[in-house]
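We store sequence with structure; for instance:
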Amino acid sequence: MNAKGISRRDFLKIGGAGAAGAALLGLAGCGQGGGQGEEEEGARGLVERGSIRIEMPTHMIPPDPNTAIMQNGAEQAARDMGVDVQFRGPDNFDIPEIQRIFEAAVAAEPDGIAATLPDADALGPIIRRAVDKGIPVVLFNAGLDHYKELGALTYYGQTEYEAGVEAGKRMSREGVDNLLVINHQQGQLTLETRYEGCRDGLGGTVKQIAVDGSDPTATRNGIETALRQNPDANGMITLGPGVAEQAMRAIKAAGRQDSVKLATFDISKPVLQAVQNGRILFAIDQQMFLQTYLSAVTLATYLLWRLSPVSAAPTGPSFVTEENAEEIIELAGRGIH
């Protein structure tokens, strides 16, 4: 049981993203057809929806392919709900820079804030200040263990530890007993939690390898070095898709394609293609489009009608394998996965 009275197991069982999503998407669709009379009256809220401004400060950096997917989700929600959503992130993963983005979001005095929480100690007080000022907040992607204590309405995201455990178990079933976990952003709580889950799920030898995720060449070189230093490793999990792309190159350069099985958290087009052709065993999709989409929609429905989920809602883990990669690739081409 976590600090909010909801266990991670219960979080997974809730099915909250589906339930909340159906309800909120239904609300978003109401009135789109230009209905008259009672339906038009019912769609009116406490504020004019066209006046709603939502700030979305995050830790997402431009090189991360998931950043564009998150932006797409936010923009789609803005169109569907008829509100303004400003998605923001740093040039590099740098906590002081992220703090400045969060501070600017609060200073802008928006109607609502949807934010990631990669570092609760550094960013939590800023979120608490926003809530104390009367700004409704939704957390997504990172912050499950802190959203209630900070006063956020809800949380959308993946249970990272359970996702790691399941990833470790899947690797074990594939015969992996010596696993390298590649961490491209040291100190990022989400990635540390994923590693811990992988370690506990595998039940064998697990070693965390730190690389510089901001530089693809440095990432690849770091992975090649790890492969040389760990000749007995027979499995590798990367904690992000860009790293997985470099890992494929590093494994090939090291001549270890037949001895090292690769899997990854999060997806990109090259990762999906590699899953489809068998170069990557599986990829974990936490459905980031849905995270930003539902966060913005939730703030809009709360500001309009005081409607919001009553608990956190999981959006992952969802596993992409060779069997379902084709349809996910089609949707990825539309910027949804």
Q: What stands out?
A: The two ends are 31 Å apart (CA to CA). The longest helix spans residues 288-305. Residues 8-28+46-159+286-316 form a domain with the Rossmann fold fold (CATH 3.40.50.2300).
